[in-house]
Amino acid sequence: VITDPDTIAAFRLDRSGWDPGGQPLGVIQAESVAQVQETLRQANSDRIPVVVRGAGTGLAGAATAADGELVLDLSKLNRIREISPLDAVAVVEPGVITANVNRAAVQYGLRYAPDPASLEISTIGGNIATNAGGLLCAKYGVTRDWVLGLDVVLADGELISTGGRTRKGVTGYDLTSLFVGSEGTLGVIVGATLRLEPVPAATATVAAYFADVEQAADAAARLPALAAVVELIDPATMRAIDGTSEAFLLVQTDGGAAHAEADAVQEALSSTATRVLRARDSGEAERLVGIRRQALPALERIGRPLIEDIVVPRSRLAEAMRRLSRIGTETGVPIFTFAHAADGNLHPIIVIDRNTVGIPDEAWHAAEQVFALALELGGRLTGEHGVGVLKRRFVGTELGARSHRVQQQLRELFDPHAILNPGKAL
Amino acid sequence: VITDPDTIAAFRLDRSGWDPGGQPLGVIQAESVAQVQETLRQANSDRIPVVVRGAGTGLAGAATAADGELVLDLSKLNRIREISPLDAVAVVEPGVITANVNRAAVQYGLRYAPDPASLEISTIGGNIATNAGGLLCAKYGVTRDWVLGLDVVLADGELISTGGRTRKGVTGYDLTSLFVGSEGTLGVIVGATLRLEPVPAATATVAAYFADVEQAADAAARLPALAAVVELIDPATMRAIDGTSEAFLLVQTDGGAAHAEADAVQEALSSTATRVLRARDSGEAERLVGIRRQALPALERIGRPLIEDIVVPRSRLAEAMRRLSRIGTETGVPIFTFAHAADGNLHPIIVIDRNTVGIPDEAWHAAEQVFALALELGGRLTGEHGVGVLKRRFVGTELGARSHRVQQQLRELFDPHAILNPGKAL
Questions:
Q1: Beta-strand (E) ranges in A275-418?
Q2: Could you give the CA distance from residue A136 to residue B184 in angstroms, rounded to a whole number?
Q3: Is A164 touching B (CB cutoff 8 A)?
Q4: Interface residue B311 vs chain A (CB under 8 A)
């Protein structure tokens, strides 16, 4: 138990930029499941709000702790309990860094595919709590698609197990999927059984530049293969990255047919792109992937980026790119957009002055228009970052009143005394 | 509304062999979502139990209707509303025959992968309600992995929508996954948005015979590629199919690298198989697949098959095959087993005398040992058929008391007056 104010301060925020203010009661650094159970039992009986925390890399504020709240840190529950090549599963504790799951699996020729950008710094427990996405989702699915079973401590401290060790299994309701993405509001994830798959035999990389971002979006939506990676960067962001002002599209195919698929992609892109590049070796591939990787650092040189995270159906991607740019122009708030294009998952980045404290009104105003656009185009408020605190007031609009109410009732069922991350997610 | 007793009789049973007896009140054949809503509204206010029905192909009794219950038949809600090649989704009504979803998608080079054996006679609504499996699940996942969004009429008649049209989307809890596999107990599915994927470029087929079923199971668990189909048939079933008494393993690889993967599979199987066959054309592939397809018809010639449906981790498959055979010997009840081997999903078939009415005690006794075996090996009671009526009394053992209670509370939340398929699933 940490009660020293300076140390507590290091555990009260995440990477969302949201500051709830005040001072948490303390931090529990759990070293066993039994300690998590005891913490919840006590907190539930004393009605103390508990904020569960992995590495604090959340982007929506779900891991921020306010005045009078207790932080339950799971980063020391960080053992990989088992990699079973025969069952193609990993059994892990929540505090394991996501990339380490993969490093352990790769020794057996297997991998855990979900690859949020934070995978080297975020924990698998946090990934599960937010149903994290990443670059590979259009082909390989999101975190939820890779979680077979969970150990969860309920609000009153009792431990349950959900799911199992197999992909099939239809006894009872799918509690596993319910806990995935619940942002610490339904229970505390203390163990997970993850599905693994063989590492793809090969990867091929194609990149293309387009004079027109809508043409790039259109090309991304009409690729002739199910690509592993389809990343789109708008001209404004490219200007920040390397001074070019064209739209950039990065496509990676993988598996035994990666190169044949990349040939087809290359040919398809040629019809509208100004330039198409094909990586001839891993160094060239790395250089092309590096362009996408520079997007956020490049914007960080301009100011403080507020990362939005909407989803639209892929058929509306070109329209979304155009309308986002228009929102920027109309509001006078610069919006830079890159996207996991095959998913229709866009990250419109609002860059504000570095010295601004909090989030200025005009940025909120632009963000609201971004959210409204997502819903208008048949999309969703958040694709992979979660609702947290920042998007909470828009949730009802997306879900609809009755569905929202059902979800709140569900939450009350799991947490009757409202101790689990109150004020977050719904 | 059908109240004629003879017609009602045609709607009161499914394919489980379970007969609850008595006479349902009547059958509502809904032709619109509004009629489903009105039916539920009325039934909820009058406390009349409602059994939702698609094609009645269920194997666990979930679609059987007892005395005083109302059957809600959705087979006339059978339009495919949309196939969107750009978004790679199908939007369908629940009464569409599953194979028809695929036939519509294939015109765009896309497919809906889940392939329960019943796909030509079962409805997509029923597939969703049971989270149906099939042959392709180890590589392509189960029905739940293909459902992006649902329209659901709640017990009181109100309509909600869950999920969306995209693979990503983390606003709120995953109600979609909760309804999938809920066997008609949480709401009535009246629409679904399904994910589609490109049809694989190629398929290759390998088959092998083994003197020893455990060696066959072992080979199935250790394949050098992520195969699309891995079907295992035990010697007893093979004897019924074609008089051979060896274990049979059918492997299909698919995608751009199908043939290279099949080469590797062929070589791997050669080390322990007595014979390995590689299909040189689609006719030969069809003949090898046909052997598996004959399994159930062959057993139907011997007597009345009771189809069990357990799951074990793949690493326990060989042990499961051995122990199932031993249960057959010890109880004197003949057990024939075939398996979706890559999933660890076994169908131990108890064949009883054709003239027996109901399920004899010794068959129940053997089935109980089969269920106990599944749980002992770290598996599950049902992989793809559901709990229905038949496995209900074993559910608590698999789930554990607290998890079972949580699920019952969840059910009460969605259906406070217990009108939705009472006596089923939990």
A1: 275-278, 304-307, 310-311, 335-340, 345-352
A2: 34
A3: yes
A4: yes
